[in-house]
Amino acid sequence: MKRDYYKVLDVPKSSTEAEIKKAYRRLAMKYHPDRNPGDAEAEDRFKEAKEAYEVLTDSQKRAAYDQYGHAGVEAAAAGARGRGAGADAFSDIFGDVFGDIFGTARRAGGRAQVFRGADLRYELELDLPQAVFGHTVEIEIPKLVECEICHGTGAAKGSTPSTCDTCGGVGQVRVSQGFFQLQQTCPKCRGAGTIVRNPCDGCLGQGRVRRARKLSVKIPPGVDSGDRIRLAGEGEAGRNGGPPGDLYVETHVREHPIFERDGEHLSCEVPVSFATAVLGGTVEVPTLDGNVALKIPAETQSGRVFRLRDKGVKPVRGGSRGDLFCRVVVETPVHLSAEQKELIRKLDDSLKHGGPRHAPREKSFFEGVKRFFSSST
Questions:
Q1: Could you list the residue range(s) of the whole structural domain that residue 371 is in?
Q2: Residues 192 and 247 reside in one and the same domain
Q3: What letter would DSSP give residue 104?
Q4: Residue 65: band (very low, low, confident or very high) from pLDDT cuts 50, 70, 90
Q5: Comparing C-alpha atoms, which of 289, 366, 275 is closest to residue 323?
Q6: Residue 182 and residue 218 share a domain
Q7: pTM of the shown model
């Protein structure tokens, strides 16, 4: 025995057509056979919901059902079969509802389908200062643009595209597959809805031609590798009057000979002489803003890091500027003369006579080694 159509869709009798359609879409998505393969109960619920929707969205059938119940609907359906209206009714339901669900809805007014142009990507290499402070660069992009001769129609001058006789200008055709009717792109016009019978000499009927376009791209300060800059409408031209795509410029920052970057911070190694590390002094340190003086305290050990505030990168998405971290590397003298070597030996002997107070790290290291081997035995 058939259930009440309003209960099937779980809507009150006062529901509008839009409310009925919304309820049906929810049930159709839930019980559609493609989503529930092999589930007989789900298939029955799907068919039941479809039948209820078909009746309650037809004003004549709904009036007959409200007055006489299922018997009134069956009588109306018998009359409709005599006029050949059954197939059209099912076709309308599929196009209006399942087209919305699965993205194949008929276009209002039978207009031909338009296609948005493809997005493009361009990889742009930058030097570190260009990325940190911003830069304007000119690039050349090969892309499909609208044909200047036919203005995108694909037809020769003095002619226009004609309506596709396969799809009637809609751009899609309906194909029966057993119980269902499916919509697919028209194989003859490829969804355009029109056929170019007299093609343009400039684009050979395609409506687009490949050209290299020069663009000026403004790189904002603070970009890093992997950041993307979107240039709206600078992608490939659309088809059949569709909008153009976008161009995405992806930045890649080249390695710098001095600085390493970590987000908004920079780091570098600063070589200092043995004498400067021992006695202290001042060395010039390069920054992206120019050289600055860095004071090295006496007895500075190799590996010590000094922080120069606000000498890093200001992030592209906002925030305070980062810092520059300078790691001191004490440089060992090379290519010494005999006299210099002798002086070094004398200094070393003098330091040794002073005991461990001149080399506390050395003493600590060897004491640690001694404890390690003692504990192992």
A1: 339-376
A2: yes
A3: -
A4: confident
A5: 289
A6: yes
A7: 0.58
Which pLDDT tens digit goes with each residue over 106-161?
Answer: 343 444 567 788 999 999 999 999 999 999 999 999 999 989 898 888 889 888 88
Long-range contacts of 273-280 (CB under 8 A, 24+ apart): 273/330, 273/331, 273/333, 274/330, 274/331, 274/332, 274/333, 276/300, 277/301, 277/302, 277/328, 277/330
Q: Cα dist. 125→213, 220, 246, 250, 253 in Å?
A: 19, 14, 20, 9, 6
Task: List Cα–Cα distances, 54 to 18, 48, 247, in angstroms.
Answer: 13, 10, 46
Per-residue model confidence (pLDDT) at position 79 = 52
Domain stop point among 221, 253, 285: 253
User: Which of 295 and 195 is assigned the larger pLDDT?
Assistant: 295
d(CA 300, CA 97): 78
Q: What is the pLDDT, as a whole number, of residue 2?
A: 81
**Could you tell me if 150 and 238 lie in one domain?**
yes
Single out the residue of 136, 96, 148, 310 nearest to residue 223, CA to CA.
Answer: 136
**Burial bucket for residue 170 (CB in 10 Å: 0-12, 13-18, 19+):** buried
Q: In angstroms, rounded to a whole number, what is the distance separating the alpha carbons of residues 328 and 277? A: 9
β-strand 247-253 against 120-126: which pairing, if any? parallel
**Mean pLDDT (the chain, rounded):** 82
Same domain, 170 and 60: no
Residue 113 belongs to a domain: no
Q: How many domains does one find in the chain?
A: 4
CATH number, position 307: 2.60.260.20
Q: Are 212 and 236 in contact (CB under 8 A)?
A: no
% of the chain with per-residue pLDDT over 70? 81
Q: Are residues 148 and 235 in the same domain?
A: yes
